[in-house]
Amino acid sequence: MVGKLKRFSGPTQTTLRQLACLGNVVEFATLSLVFRESEEEIHTALWEAARAGLILRQEGSYAFLHDRIQEAAYALIPEGERAGAHLRIGRMLLASMTADRLAEHLFDVANQLNRGAALLIDRDEKVRVATINLTAGQKAKASTAYASAREYFSAGMALLDERDWSSHYELTFSLWLERAECEFLSGNFEQAEQIIVELLRRGASKVDQAAVYRLKVLLHILKSENQQAVATGLTHLRQFGIDIPACPTEEQVQAEYETVWQTLEGRPIESLIDLPPMTDTELQAVMQVLSVLATPVYADNYGLYCLLLCRMVKAGVQHGMNDASACACGLLGFTLGPVFHRYHEGYRFARLACDLIEKHGFVASRAKVYASFGGVAGWTQPITSAIDINRVTFRAAIETGDLAFACYSMIQSITYLLLRNDPLDGVWRESEMGLDFARKARFRDIAEGFVNQQRFIATMQGRTTAFSTFSDAQFDEAVLEAQLTGDRVVESISYWMFKLQSRFLLHEYVAALAAAQQAKPLLGAMLGQIKLLDYFYYTALTVAALYENAPADEQSRWRGLLSAHREQLREWAENYPPTFADKHALVSAEIARLEGRAFDAMQLYDQAIQSARENGFVQNEGLAHEVAARFYAAGGFEAIAHLYLRNARNCYDRWGAFGKVRQLDERCPYLHEEPTPAFSATIGQPVGHLDIATVVKASQALSSEIVLSKLIEKLMRIAVEHAGAERGLLILLRCDEPHVEAEATTVHGGVEVAVRRTAVTPSDLPQSALHYVIRTQERVVVETLRSGTCIRRTNMCGRSAPDLSCACPSSNKRNLSARSIWRTI
Question: What's the whole-model pTM score?
Answer without folding.
Answer: 0.66
